[in-house]
Amino acid sequence: MTSVHTTSEVLPRILVVEDDPIARAILSASLKKDGYQVDVASNGQAAIDKYSEDFFPVIITDWLMPEMDGIELCRMIRSMNIDRYIYIIFVTSQDSREDVIKGLDAGADDYIIKPIHHSELRARIKSACRILDLETKLKNSLAKSHELAIHDPLTGAFNRVYMDQQLRLELIRCERYHRPLSVIMCDLDHFKAVNDTHGHLAGDEVLKSCVESIMSSLRKGIDWVARYGGEEFVVVLPETGQAVIDALAERLRLKIASTPVDVNGFEINVTASFGAATLVPSFTESRRTIEQILKVADSCLYQAKDNGRNQAVSGILE
Description:
Layout: E1 14-17, H1 21-33, E2 38-41, H2 44-51, E3 58-62, H3 70-79, E4 87-92, H4 97-106, E5 110-113, H5 118-150, H6 160-177, E6 181-188, H7 191-198, H8 200-215, E7 224-229, E8 232-238, H9 242-257, E9 261-263, E10 266-268, E11 272-279, H10 290-306, E12 312-317
Parallel strand pairs: 1-2, 1-3, 3-4, 4-5, 11-12
Antiparallel strand pairs: 6-8, 6-11, 7-8, 9-10
Helix pairs in contact: 2-3, 7-8
């Protein structure tokens, strides 16, 4: 018998829970003919043990089984802290409305009355696949929405909302574990002239190139950059002292200055000024605020601009 699915489909793995070895083998073979990967368990407890080692998006479980029956298995599965949905199909010879309600109330999504017909089983599994596919699409959509909510859509850097929240957490961690925290404020020099001379689309390309240059120099998963406003960015570096931050600010300055931005075959050269601030937590002083550390960085940035731009100045909070 040929598979009813196309080769591009990703079929869910199925766990068959049935104490009768003959019924278990028949059901398993029927599912495998349709192209599903199938594993089996002889009762509810054996099924729970398998979930400690692997994941099965679909469970087909009998009602009456020794040690742990199907009702208890449903309740146990629904009580587990699993971040993916498990679709449960209840198999029973009990066809009264009360018994069906009892199974659904325990956490089953669907049910099949014995004896099982292959065409009905196939339809039930297809329904399960549709539900699981919708759940996956919904989770992906929510994840995408979350990413959009915390990122600047133009540059890909984090946005101001994320910066305010996350920097506050970084400060708490800095004070709690008495580890230094550094921030660098970056401001593109004469950015208005870029927009006035080459247009705003060219300015957008310059901003994106600037962020790419910064990100390529940071520790992945540790340091991060946020768009502070306009052509200004804030780089946050946990557990980083002043000596390291001075060298990094200079490296970022050189990287941006030496990376011309190609816009429709025309190269635009830009520079940036940097103000860096390092917080060295004290055992005696009260907790600092994000406003305080940003104020020091901003003061250093203005000093860099007053000194002629295209340079980095750093300060320290103790």
